[in-house]
Amino acid sequence: MSESGVTHLSRSSIAFVDVSLFAHATEDENKVMRAVQNLFPTKYWDSLTFRRQNLYGHHRNPIIFFETRIKDKEFVQAFVENLSSKLPIGDKQDLLEEIDRSVEKGSLYLRLDKQSAFQGNFKLCTADPIRVRIRFKKSKLEDVVQVCQELGILP
C-alpha cells in the first residue's frame, strides 16, 4: 500500500473516468458547474475542461449537456480518493448490494446528487444526477468489485 492507502495495482487498474451532467433552464449554470467541481480536489479545478452541447427538452426548453473524460493517472487517482472518502458507507453498501446493476463491460456507473455535490457532499441518487463512469482495464465483475473495494469505493 502507498501512503494514501491505495495500492499501485488498483490505481493502474483504471483506464479513465467520464463525468457528465445536464444543466436545465431552471438551474444556475455556475452552481451546476460548482457542484461538479466539488467532485474533485480543489487543485484540479483549473484543469477541468468540459465539452458543452446545447440541447432542447421535450417542450423546447434549453438544456446544456456537459461532459469530460479524465485520463491523467494522477487526476484519476485524486478523483477516486475524493469519491471514496466522501461517499457515505450506506451508499457504498447499497452500491455493493446492487453492483450487477452498476457495472457493465468493465465500467462502474454512478449517479451522484447534484444538490449534495454543490454542498460538498456525495450521495447516490437517481433523478437528475451527475453521471460518473469509471472504466477499468479489466472487465469481469469480480475484478471490478475487488478493485473498487481496494480503492474504498465499495465496503
Could you characterize what this model shows?
This protein is α+β, with helices and mostly antiparallel strands. It has one domain: Ribosomal protein L5 (50s Ribosomal Protein L5, Chain: A, 2-Layer Sandwich), CATH 3.30.1440. It has seven helices and six strands, in the order αβαββαααββαβα. It has helices at 8-11, 29-37, 73-86, 89-97, 99-102, 114-118, 141-151, and strands at residues 14-24, 51-56, 62-70, 103-104, 107-113, 129-136. It has a six-stranded antiparallel sheet. Strand 4 (103-104) and strand 5 (107-113) form a beta hairpin. Mean pLDDT is 91; it is low at 1-9.
Helix content: 25-40%
CATH topology: 50s Ribosomal Protein L5, Chain: A
- Describe the sheet with the most strands: 6 strands, antiparallel
> Any idea how many domains?
1
- β-strand percent reads 25-35%
Q: From the 3D coordinates, which CATH architecture would you assign? A: 2-Layer Sandwich
Structural class determined from secondary elements = alpha+beta
CATH class: Alpha Beta
CATH superfamily placement: Ribosomal protein L5
**Oligomerization state:** single chain
Give the low-confidence spans: 1-9
Strand order of the largest sheet: 2-3-1-6-5-4
Instruction: Specify the overall morphology.
Output: globular
Radius of gyration, in angstroms, nearest whole number: 15 Å
* Spatial gap, N to C terminus: 17 Å
Q: Tally the helices: what do you get?
A: 7
- How do the SSEs run, as a string of H and E? HEHEEHHHEEHEH
Give the total of beta strands: 6
Average per-residue pLDDT, rounded, comes to: 91
